[in-house]
Amino acid sequence: xxxxxxxxxxxxxxxxxxxxxxxxxxxxxxxxxxxxxxxxxxxxxxxxxxxxxxxxxxxxxxxxxxxxxxxxxxxxxxxxxxxxxxxxxxxxxxxxxxxxxxxxxxxxxxxxxxxxxxxxxxxxxxxxxxxxxxxxxxxxxxxxxxxxxxxxxxxxxxxxxxxxxxxxxxxxxxxxxxxxxxxxxxxxxxxxxxxxxxxxxxxxxxxxxxxxxxxxxxxxxxxxxxxxxxxxxxxxxxxxxxxxxxxxxxxxxxxxxxxxxxxxxxxxxxxxxxxxxxxxxxxxxxxxxxxxxxxxxxxxxxxxxxxxxxxxxxxxxxxxxxxxxxxxxxxxxxxxxxxxxxxxxxxxxxxxxxxxxxxxxxxxxxxxxxxxxxxxxxxxxxxxxxxxxxxxxxxxxxxxxxxxxxxxxxxxxxxxxxxxxxxxxxxxxxxxxxxxxxxxxxxxxxxxxxxxxxxxxxxxxxxxxxxxxxxxxxxxxxxxxxxxxxxxx
Length: 489
What we know:
Layout: H1 3-12, E1 23-24, E2 33-41, E3 44-54, E4 60-66, E5 71-75, E6 81-83, E7 86-89, E8 94-98, E9 104-109, E10 114-121, E11 141-144, E12 154-156, E13 159-163, E14 168-173, E15 179-184, E16 194-195, E17 199-204, E18 208-213, E19 219-224, E20 250-252, E21 255-259, E22 264-269, E23 275-280, E24 290-291, E25 295-299, E26 304-309, E27 315-320, E28 330-332, E29 335-339, E30 344-348, E31 355-360, E32 371-373, E33 376-380, E34 386-390, E35 397-402, E36 412-413, E37 417-425, E38 435-440, E39 446-451, E40 460-462, E41 468-470, E42 473-477, E43 482-487
Antiparallel strand pairs: 1-6, 2-3, 2-10, 3-4, 4-5, 6-7, 7-8, 8-9, 9-10, 11-43, 12-13, 13-14, 14-15, 16-17, 17-18, 18-19, 20-21, 21-22, 22-23, 24-25, 25-26, 26-27, 28-29, 29-30, 30-31, 32-33, 33-34, 34-35, 36-37, 37-38, 37-40, 38-39, 41-42, 42-43
């Protein structure tokens, strides 16, 4: 989470705070000093601390210490204000009030008004060194593709299919990383492909949905989705409205379902490329759709989740989440799991869209799609740097593991392992190191971590794309334009 996002979250959740007639906190106020404790709901509580101290102008400021967020002395925008015995940190949507002895504070934290409790301390935590982890076997092969890779690869019959920002779509033999074919498509490809028995489908930033012959890459048809003039903002050290995804076409009963950058959603015949219906929203659709027997569900950058009738495109329900939905909705048992860039994870009723439960992702944007396996589901969160294993019934945390880099990619889950990719950024407000992590599925313990190369003149490295398990290999493409194949343990 960055300082620009702090302001965004405050605006989104301002309705959660009363309009107090607050005043500047006077010098010598008992809130000054160091405080540490916990915050959150019973199913997920984390350590949190603040130091309240004055700047050169004598204004009381707040500095955040939150090991779960990887913040150690982050200055929070805005001033600390006081209303009687209540203190307000509006930019962080946080309030405090004192216990009688002035050695304890109770309050609420962040958009869902999670309970917060802290005691006065003499020392606050500092960041721990990066631990020594087993490096793993390293890649079996690596293939340079000439442009950044932002999506998981699609695999079919021993061939991996992936597009890049160079405007080329590639077919790579997974036996040795050699090219089966590669074709130019004119503009960057940010979305995952769909590989069927005889075809490959994908979207391109020229506003087109492509169907290629899977055998040789020749074009079968292309369909105009619109949105070719919608700009993207990619990774930058000071501008954080990053937009690096595109939807994967989803197929059911001979019909493709896919969204567009112009906010429209389309049902298209897979054999001919002819439109069946089109539904319009007000904002970019960058996530994959979720299909069930009769409906299609997707989210957009207005933070709206929509369920449509698959046959007609008629709207069934809408749900406002109040922040970008960049991750794809996921069906986990009788819940629809949706994460957003506002740091909220929500479970909806698939039939009605009504909220079943909500929980915090501790202010971290959630770009990762939830992956169900067994009785749990697994999901990453960006600046949180963690992969979390949740109970779908109530959002209770089973385990949570720091993977030491930005956890954007959808994890790949097997009976024994969770494969999780991580992105690295330098400079950044916290440590992010790119790499591929292999976790024990039962405990979350990191079994090995391969650290991605990061040169001194590179801002972004490692992986924005999630990994794909293909037989005895794990395939993952990097922001440096290299497709890697690692052996499965």
